[in-house]
Amino acid sequence: MIQNIRGVLTNFIEFKEDLKKLKDQAKTAQDLLEKAQAIRDRTRAIDVTDLKKTITDTENTQDRVAQDLEKAKESHGVADKMIKEIEKKLNNIETNLNSTRTPEMLEEIEVLKSKTEMNREQAEQAKADADAAIGATTDAEKGLDKVTALFDRLKTGNTNQTNNEAANERLKNITVEAEKVAKDIRDKIQQIDDLEKKIQDFIRNKEDKAKEVAMLLEMVEALQKEITARVDGYINCTS
Fold first, then answer.
1. Average of pLDDT values for 143-159?
2. pTM for the full model?
3. Contact criterion met (CB below 8 Å) for 103 and 152
């Protein structure tokens, strides 16, 4: 009998504990229900249109990022190709400058130096010829004065036929010599102009080569900066 009473008491105590657990569970369920209702109310208060727009903008942004990334890859490929072409051209220029053309260029410089020296000598000779021409002109003027005097004497009847022929011959000789000296001077001046033109052309070609190399280096630097900017922009967009 006592054993039965103890069993009933034990069952009652266990029942009370189970009842307490049920009450706790019921309270927990009520709390969860209230939280769910609050979340539902907040969800209803959200503007679905703005949410959809935000999602759409996000998707569009992702598409643009993907497109920009693709363009960056294409630009990178084009830039790599251009850089390789420029490097190849620079290598060709460097090879040409360091190859057999260098001795040829040095030889051309020596030839020009020789021609310049010849030019100087010819200029000195031309000056000497010019001085001689001036002297000849002075002589010619004196001869002309004599011829004029002879003509005057012929007009006045103070000379004979022999003197007249001598004066004509001397005048002819003076005229031929003056024309010869003038032609020599013109030829030498033309030679000087030709040599100066060749020297200027050679200097201009060297300057053009230097400008071409500088321009290629600037192109390489600009492409490198563009690639760096593209990569930095992509990193900033994706970070």
1. 53
2. 0.27
3. no
